[in-house]
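To: structure subgroup
Subject: Chain for Friday's discussion

All,

I'm putting the inputs and outputs inline so they're searchable in the archive.
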Amino acid sequence: ATGSALLRVTKRPCLVISEVMFYPTNTGTTDHNDWVELTSFDTEPVDLWGYRIRDALNFNIAFRITNHVIIRPGESIILVKQMSPEAFNRWWGNDSLPPNLQVVEFVGFGLYNGNGEIYVWNGATRNDWDLVASASYTASSFPPYNEGISVECDGRCFPNDGSASYGRT
């Protein structure tokens, strides 16, 4: 029997966690949940199938994207905790969102409403430090701790050459 295989090697994409908003714990409102904005600074579309995201440096317990989500160059997507894309759009206001915004529902972890970090790995990684992107965010030190306000992140993408690129939207 003979066979053939095609191996396609692609460069690591430049994805940046550009903004976060955590669940409002002290406001008495429950109209939204945690969400993360992921932005592509790459030159090619990126399929996020198999990618993992977590607020702790442990890819084994991270949320895994289980469908094909294509993020195009310059595009941002939203990952929102336990909230359907339709509910997120209603909460934000359909007319206030970019057309064709992709919203992906996640489960499993929640953002801390203080200082925090978020990590992104591709589906093939075998090492916690083999990151595609990471970000740290700082919330206000005083109540209401940025509740109801999104926080820009100091995001990092990690190209194949081992350097880190920083981005802020």
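Points worth raising on Friday:
Residues 85-92 form the longest helix (8 residues).
Residues 79 and 104 are 5 Å apart (CA to CA).

D.
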